[in-house]
Amino acid sequence: MSVTSPSLRSTSTVANPEVVPDHVTRINEAKTPTGPGRPGASTAHITPSTAHLSTEDIERIGAELEAMRDEVMSSLGEADAQYIRRVIKTQRGLEIAGRIMLLGALFPPAFVLGTASLGVAKILENMEIGHNVLHGQWDWMRDPEIHSTTWEWDAVSTAEGWQHAHNYLHHTYTNVHGKDRDIGYNLLRIDPDQPWAPHYLFQFLSNAGLALIFEWGIAMFDLEIDEVQRGEKTWADKKPAIMGMLRKAGKQMLKDYVVFPALSGPSFVPAAVGGLVANLMRNVWGHAVIFCGHFPVEVETFDEERLENESQAEWYVRQMLGSANIEGSTLLHIMTGNLSHQIEHHLFPDMPSNHYARIAPQVRDLCRRYGLPYHSGPMWKQYGGVLWKIARLSFPGGHEAVEKRRRRGLPVIGEAVATLRRLRDGAAPAAA
After folding, report:
1. H helices then E strands: how many in the chain?
2. Largest CB tally within 10 Å, which of 109, 198, 206, 237?
3. Which residue from 185, 183, 251, 192 is spatially nearest to 214, judged by alpha carbons?
4. C-alpha 343 chain-centroid distance
5. 269-302 confidence digits (pLDDT tens)
6. Using an 8 Å Cβ cutoff, are 416 and 325 in contact?
7. pLDDT tens-digit series, residues 171-216
């Protein structure tokens, strides 16, 4: 396969572009529009961070967020299409340059520059391109080569398996115990409500190991082998997915460790090592970005009863409480796939990522006006909090320590209460 062409799952044009594919996250479509305060509804949405909000307040939050989304989605056009095509062109240029330089990998400068260029290309492909294309963010372009039903990314996991585990399970049930398998990835105790077991004593090392093999960990995770362990599925049921992953992984390994290194002749070994290091770069970076988006100390998790009669607006609030942003430069945002705007991404997973920075100040101001936390900080702070939590939860307990730090992150809601009083009296909220 040429490195200048995307790996497509289908070479045909996209069938009926008006139909939304199953894997594209459609916000809470199965939920009925009932909520706390309405007949038969639960109050499971009430947490320390939302106790001051009424049902009407939450519905107003939902309406404001819907308006933000509508404004952006109605503005999409040629400038956006040029953006993603420019990113893809840059990524391919970096990959080609890296592969070419690794042909002379016996020469140390060529090895270092080639490996760095290839590593950055892999990060761009996975984060700003692959992740977001597979979310359907660019389906509106109706370009069969940049479409969620045809794109196959540069990772050992299959696009189809990832879309089910990530787009559907994770984005629908974000941070809900018993539903969102991303809480700890079946490997780590990342929340004090997870029962403690002796193997968690070593989870600081497990986390480091996971970072190094992150693409393989995700590929295995997407297979949902735990369904077999629980007796919900058989190995025969899982065989097609397992074989699909093995075929995809084989192609990836052949490309990175055999075909391209072989083209370098006497530089075969250092060229293969360069491919390995590039993959390690991508794995460690992707692991850090993902963990910073959902596992900082301040981020909340929820019981399954939270889903009962959860309205669209309550779904929005859960996404904001269960996500965290990374502050940094434009380059950092691009290299994270704009998952540095994890809050905005979880609110609007099918919105093109280049618009998250545009709406982030509006979402932050909405949280300020309604007294909701907006978890955001530099990468060192977010990942430092993640590592602290992993270390603390290696041992039994941890509820008090984690809850104390969570409450420390709650906003002072005096201003918000005044704003809500004006809203309830029929006045408009004060803008920032």
Report:
1. 19, 4
2. 206
3. 185
4. 10
5. 999 999 999 999 999 999 999 999 999 999 999 9
6. no
7. 999 999 999 999 999 899 999 999 999 999 999 999 999 999 999 9
Q: Distance between CA 75 and CA 57 in Å, rounded?
A: 28
pLDDT over threshold 60, residue 15: no
SS3 call for 376 = strand
Residue 327 bridge partners (DSSP) = 378
pLDDT at 122: 98
| 338, 345 Cβ separation under 8 angstroms | yes
Evaluated on CA atoms 426, 430, 431, 432, the torsion sign reads: negative
Report the candidate in 148, 240, 201, 137 with the shortest Cα–Cα distance to residue 390. Answer: 201
Angstrom distances, CA of residue 379 to CA of 54, 323, 382, 383: 34, 14, 5, 6
Domain limits of the chain? 45-417
Q: How confident is the model at residue 414 (pLDDT cuts 50, 70, 90)?
A: low
Q: Where are the alpha helices (DSSP H) in 103-213?
A: 108-124, 132-134, 159-162, 171-172, 203-212
Query: Amino acid identity of 401?
Result: A
Q: What is the DSSP letter of 127?
A: I
pLDDT at residue 327 tops 80: yes
Tens digit of each residue's pLDDT (9 = 90 or more) over 88-117 = 999 999 999 999 999 999 999 999 999 999
In the block, tokens 């479509």 appear at: 29
Which of the 8 DSSP states describes residue 89? H
The residue behind tokens 């001051």 is: 52
Question: Does residue 419 contact residue 432 with C-beta atoms inside 8 Å?
Answer: no
Residue type, 135: H
Length of the chain: 432
Name every residue whose Cβ is closer than 8 Å to that of residue 175 and which is 6 or more positions away in sequence.
Answer: 183, 294, 299, 300, 301, 302, 318, 321, 322
Please enumerate in sequence order all residues whose Cβ is within 8 A of that of 4, keeping only pairs 6 or more positions apart, or say none: 92, 96
Region class of 324: left (phi > 0), else alpha (psi between -120 and 50), else beta: beta
Q: Which of 262, 282, 429 is nearest to 362 (CA)?
A: 429
Nearest to 376 by CA among 402, 330, 409: 409
**Strand pairing partners for 326?**
377
pLDDT of residue 47: 76
For tokens 């497990």, what's the residue? 206
List alpha helices for 322-396, DSSP H.
330-335, 342-347, 356-370, 379-392
